[in-house]
Amino acid sequence: MQTELDHLAALAGKGSISRRDFLGRAAALGVSAALATTLAGKAFAATPVKGGIIKAGLQGGESTNSLDPALNLSQVTFSFCKQWGEFLVRLTPDGGVENLIAQEIGASADAKTWTMKIREGIEFHNGKTVTADDVAATLERHADEKPKSGALGILKNIKGIKASGKEVIVTLGDADADFPYLMADYHLVIQPNGGKDNPNAGIGAGPYKVAVNQPGVKHGGERFANYWRGDKAGHADQIEIVVINDPTARLAALQGGQVHLINRVEPKVVDLVKRMPGVSIENVAGRGYYPFNMFCDTAPFDNNDLRMALKLAMDRDEMVEKILRGYGSAGNDFPINEAYPLFSSDIEQRKFDPEKAAAAYKKSGHSGSILLRTSDVAFPGAVDAAQLYQQSCAKAGIRIEIKREPGDGYWSEVWNKQPFSLSYWGGRPTQDQMYSTGYLSTADWNDTRFKRPEFDKMLYTARGELDQAKRKAIYRDMAMLMRDEGGLIVPFFNQFVDASNTKKVSGWVKNPNGEMMDGYALSECWLNA
């Protein structure tokens, strides 16, 4: 309920709903009249203020970063694209879809043909009006294999894209009731001619125009005067992202006033941060997880007995306690948790079992050390997590060698390129999208090289199944196959833990879809008067 109340408060603060509507919706959530009145008073007092520069210190930036949305893969590019770019739709904190450039989205009876009516009057930063042709070209580019888009996996089902007047018609190979959710993917920034001419130009229709682009150092934007939602976003005159990959330096920048917002607060220092005057911890549970990835097609990880040994040697309870400090929950070696509506809660939780791990390791026939790569930028506490895992593996007679990689270049040279490494996923709004993005055999971001035709077939079947009970059963079978034979070790699902300077900034809304208000914090927060 708290997430829904936060969402209501944000709508009220932005003037999107009336006081009467606020009280009615709060009552529907079971809030007492007295409490609802108090909350309404606070919410409607939080009116956005225009002006100034909002600054964020973020982990997840590299010198190799590009403005091409197709190549977004870490936190800085994720957040920055949501300032200069605009999307067809966006996810709401309560799990729904809000229309943006797509004014309406409708489907045929068989959920294979989807028609999107494109909103009129939205302007690109270069003065050109956004058209159905631009939308169609954007989808075409990301559905093509050449740009290596991170959205390629979820667009594989598209068989036809056509612009017709003010509409874009998308034809799918298989029925997909989740299609509108796919359009919220953060790679799908709508660009002039889809970005086919110059994908790295940074021209979008978002609240800020790109003013500074120094990959690995700093990114900045200036308010776009003609932004179509100017009353709801783009409150500051300028926004700035400073790349600060070191967690201690990031926290010091917040405490010292150099930045107003930071991401990736390490759980081990959360209690300390809570005692800082004027600083608020902004944490929310969602679908994000911190995996240990093994390439199923690369020795020695092409042996399932070895993979099972490494899974059984993971002490998940200890990981949640010592690495996340309780800001998360144990994982079960597949990428889905209770945040997904069709999650199967009856799957047995895998536990640390050094004896069974030792037996599986012996059966694998492997000997010698196993190299695990990690970095501070993989996730908060990733180096400590690797060392803790090394200790639990030792109890099963498995020797882990740890290589600590530099942050700059980790996402371009280690993740999805080295056979055993730590990573993070922010999760996706639906199971279909999560599996399609990272675990479909043909997915460009298949970072465990899990390629199983029977898994793919189940995914396609579930996508077109409109009976939710049958669909849930298929997803359960997929989870079991991945859990027992995949290359994914999921020790825990994390909370997103950000922090803000509440003396200087207002407007923060908890959003379980991603860190930094699902990337929208810089454009939807404002500086206090």
Radius of gyration: 23 Å
What overall form do the CA principal axes indicate?
Answer: globular
Estimated helix fraction:
25-40%
State the major sheet. Answer: 9 strands, mixed
Mean pLDDT over the residues: 94
Q: Unreliable runs, pLDDT <50, ≥5 residues?
A: none
Structural class: alpha+beta
The end-to-end span amounts to: 30 Å
Give the total of beta strands. 19
Which percent range describes the beta-strand content? Answer: 15-25%
- Give me the number of helical elements: 19
Describe this entry's structure for a reader.
It is a single chain. With 529 residues, the chain is of the alpha+beta class. Helix content is 32%, strand content 20%. Strand 2 (89-91) and strand 3 form a beta hairpin. The radius of gyration is 23 Å and the shape is globular.
Summarize the structure.
This protein has 529 residues and is an alpha+beta fold. The chain has helices spanning 2-13, 19-28, 33-45, 75-84, 132-143, 152-155, 179-182, 247-255, 270-274, 304-312, 316-322, 354-364, 382-394, 410-414, 431-438, 453-464, 468-485, 515-518, 521-524, and strands at 53-58, 89-91, 97-99, 102-107, 113-118, 158-164, 167-172, 208-214, 218-223, 238-243, 261-262, 279-294, 328-330, 370-374, 400-404, 420-422, 488-501, 505-506, 526-527.
